[in-house]
Automatic annotation (TrEMBL):
Family: Belongs to the class-IV pyridoxal-phosphate-dependent aminotransferase family.
CDD domains hit by this protein: D-AAT_like
NCBIfam families, per the entry: PRK06680.1
Protein name from the UniProt record: Probable branched-chain-amino-acid aminotransferase
Gene3D superfamilies in the record: 3.30.470.10, D-amino Acid Aminotransferase, subunit A, domain 2 (3.20.10.10)
Physiological role: Acts on leucine, isoleucine and valine.
Taxonomic placement: Bacteria, Pseudomonadati, Pseudomonadota, Alphaproteobacteria, Rhodobacterales
Regions annotated as coiled coil: none
MF GO annotations: D-alanine-2-oxoglutarate aminotransferase activity
Species: Lacimonas salitolerans
Length: 281
């Protein structure tokens, strides 16, 4: 696999970053995941805009190659022959050659830019999308700026492990009684034909797939309500689902061991998945 590091395309085993990189020592970095279908990038402008915002919110310098990011993505897709898969991009505050809580001077410490591809044949035609997924609920104990896509993914990873241990696929996180989001996706329920998902704030990531799916839903005359909901309300809903760049739209058929609706994918989530894949590829 060819990867990209700070201006160079290299075989993955020749790519290197410093052990003092603040991404490594302090999780001082942000990332984006963009899907590739039919060799084409999905929702790229949205991911780029969110990356720019994440960097600005953390006073992090744009990497020198920022304006070339589209070209770098395309080059990696071509070089690695990706038809279906993902591109991971990470920017960290770089390395000042030591460990220090104080941010280094951006003039002398450039940010680190890393990209790599993940080949995922069958990403669009997913068996999980046909069968639906099971989720458990866990406390949301993450920090208060979840709108910034940082690489601090320890708790989401722990959440996935808790889910796996419970025989489920993922976890929905709950704060003050209300669902915030999934460990790596936005959460939705459907009741009486209405699509309900948490309103945007610093409490959740502003999903790029969320924005597109809600736009397509409204264009298809589906009713959308952006508000918080509880796990009880979700268990009582007709349908539940998640969205993300890597999962697109996935039905959720079980929450904490209780069936949602009939316990099989309903009408709305599979329809939204179909529309999303049709419109964005
Ligand atoms: N995760 N919420 C969280 C906490 C996420 O990590 C993600 C994305 C989303 C969905 O955002 P988008 O639709 O822009 O992908 C919501 C990516 C896919 C990941 O970490 O792999």
């Amino acid at each position: 696999r060819t990867v990209y590091v700070n201006g160079d395309y290299l075989p993955e085993d020749e790519a290197k970053v410093s052990i003092f990189d603040r991404g490594f020592l302090m999780a001082d970095g942000v990332y984006e995941v963009t899907s590739v279908l039919d060799g084409k990038l999905i929702d790229f402008p949205g991911h780029l805009a969110r990356l720019e915002r994440s960097l600005a919110e953390l006073d992090m310098q744009k990497p020198a190659q920022f304006d070339d990011l589209l070209e770098i993505h395309r080059e990696l897709v071509t070089r690695n022959g990706i038809e279906e898969g993902m591109i991971y991009l990470q920017v960290t505050r770089g390395s000042a050659g030591d460990r220090d809580f104080v941010f280094p001077d951006p003039e002398t410490t450039p940010s680190t830019l890393v990209l790599f591809t993940q080949n995922k044949p069958g990403l669009a035609d997913s068996p999980v999308a046909r069968a639906g997924m099971k989720v458990i609920s866990i406390d949301d104990i993450r920090w208060g700026r979840r709108d910034i896509k940082t690489v601090q993914l320890l708790y989401p990873s722990m959440g996935k492990m808790m889910a796996r241990k419970a025989g489920a696929d993922d976890a929905w996180m709950v704060e003050d009684g209300f669902v915030t989001e999934g460990t790596s996706n936005n959460a939705y329920i459907v009741k009486g034909g209405k699509i309900i998902t948490r309103q945007l704030s610093n409490d959740i990531l502003h999903g790029i797939t969320r924005a597109a799916v809600l736009r397509f839903a409204r264009e298809a005359q589906m009713e959308v309500e952006e508000r918080s909901f509880t796990i009880d309300e979700a268990r009582d809903a007709d349908e539940a689902f998640i969205t993300s760049a890597s999962a697109f739209v996935m039905p959720v058929i079980e929450i904490d061991g209780a069936k949602v609706g009939a316990g099989v994918p309903g009408k709305v989530a599979p329809r939204l998945r179909e529309i999303y894949l049709e419109e964005s590829r």
